[in-house]
Design brief:
mainly alpha, globular, two-stranded antiparallel sheet
Amino acid sequence: MVCLTSGGLDKRITRLKRARHLVDTGVLSAPCSFVTADLHFLKRKCNGCGVANAWFDYVPDRFIGTNVRHACFIHDWEYYLGLTLEDKKKADDNFKANLRILIELDTTNRVLIKVKYTLACVYYLGVKHFGHKSFLKGK
């Protein structure tokens, strides 16, 4: 089922379905609730890479062609569910692992893999050191 919005097909619902498929098939790691949650509720909680409702989307969803948005959706969901700093650490570590998996699935060139791993580390360090406000939001 594809949801319609005033702007046409709802791309985020389609992308969330793809992310759930990657979890369902064991490619990516996420809490079971990511797969079972209502898609429209998931859409409200998972915006992808970067800060929700930011004035400017300065965090790309791709690393040199590799789509990492699915890892970002899962990370958003884990931040929503998390209650403790240990939960935040687990979410951040899972985010890093999921980024690596997406890079490995999409890239065969060893040099490009290393470059993309470096970018993944930047994303990981960003959420590790600056994600506290987002993690604590609504708690």
